[in-house]
Design brief:
Elements lengths: L5 H34 L5 H13 L2 H12 L4 H8 L8 H25 L3 H9 L4 H12 L1 H16 L3 H6 L10 H9 L5 H34 L1
Length: about 230
C-alpha cells in the first residue's frame, strides 16, 4: 500500500475543492453563454463562439501566461484588485480561475448541444401562450437542459482535476497552498526516487476522474428516466 504524506492529502483535498468551486462558479455563466449562442441573434456570434472555444486550442501554458499578464501587479485588473487588497496570483483562487477558463468551453459545448436538441415547437407554444422570454427560459429551456448541464458540469469537474499548465503559471506550485494532484505528480517525477509516489497519485487521479464520469452517467440516466415519465 502507498503511504501518502500530509502534503499529498492536502493536494488531493485542494484538487477536489478547486474543481468543485470552478464548476459551481462556471455553471451560470456557461448556461448564459450557451443560451446566447443557441437562442439569441447576438451580433458577432461567430466571434463570441470562437473566444469561448479558444482555450481548447491554445496551450494551457499560454492561457496561464495571459491570465498572469491580466492579473499580475502590472496588469490592469490585477492592479485594480490590489487597490482593494485582493490578491489572486499564487493563491488557490488562481487555481480556480485557471480551471474555470480551461474547462469553460467543455461546459458550454455540452449545454449547447442539449439546448439545440430542444423541440422548438415547445418554445414557440410557450410564447404563443403569452410567456415572456424569462418564463420560457425557466419553465421550458432550463428543465429540458438538465441532462446537458449535468454532463457539462461533470466534464468540467474532471478536466479541472487534471489541470496543470495554466495552474502552474498563475498559481505556482506551493505545497499546501496551491499544489494540486498534477503539480504534486510533477514534483515527484522531478525528484530522484519519487516515481513510486508519482504513480500512486496518478492512480488517485484516474480513480477520481472515473468516479466522476460514472457518477455523471448514472445521474444523467436517472434524470432522463424521470423526464420521460
Amino acid at each position: 500500500m502507498f503511504e501518502f504524506t500530509p502534503t499529498d492529502w492536502q493536494a488531493m483535498e485542494l484538487s477536489a475543492r478547486v474543481a468543485f468551486t470552478a464548476t459551481l462558479l462556471s455553471l451560470p455563466f456557461g448556461f448564459a453563454a450557451a443560451y446566447l449562442l443557441v437562442f439569441s441573434r447576438l451580433p458577432g456570434k461567430a466571434l463570441f463562439d470562437g473566444l469561448i472555444n479558444l482555450p481548447l486550442v491554445l496551450p494551457p501554458v499560454v492561457v496561464g501566461y495571459l491570465l498572469l499578464l491580466l492579473l499580475g501587479r502590472n496588469g490592469w485588473l490585477g492592479g485594480l484588485l490590489a487597490e482593494f487588497g485582493i490578491q489572486i496570483i499564487f493563491t488557490w483562487k488562481a487555481a480556480v480561475l485557471a480551471s474555470m477558463v480551461v474547462g469553460f468551453p467543455l461546459l458550454v459545448r455540452s449545454i449547447r448541444i442539449g439546448m439545440e436538441g430542444i423541440d422548438r415547437q415547445l418554445i414557440q407554444a410557450s410564447r404563443t401562450l403569452g410567456a415572456r422570454w424569462y418564463d420560457t427560459l425557466f419553465s421550458v429551456i432550463l428543465p429540458l437542459s438538465g441532462r446537458s448541464l449535468l454532463a457539462g458540469a461533470s466534464l468540467m469537474f474532471a478536466r479541472s482535476l487534471g489541470e496543470f499548465g495554466a495552474t502552474i503559471i498563475i498559481a505556482g506550485n506551493i505545497p499546501g497552498v496551491t499544489q494540486t494532484i498534477p503539480l504534486a505528480i510533477y514534483d515527484y517525477t522531478s525528484t530522484p526516487g519519487g516515481d513510486r509516489m508519482a504513480l500512486a497519485l496518478c492512480a488517485v487521479s484516474v480513480g477520481l476522474a472515473l468516479a466522476v464520469l460514472i457518477f455523471n452517467e448514472g445521474l444523467v440516466k436517472r434524470f432522463g428516466r424521470e423526464q420521460s415519465r
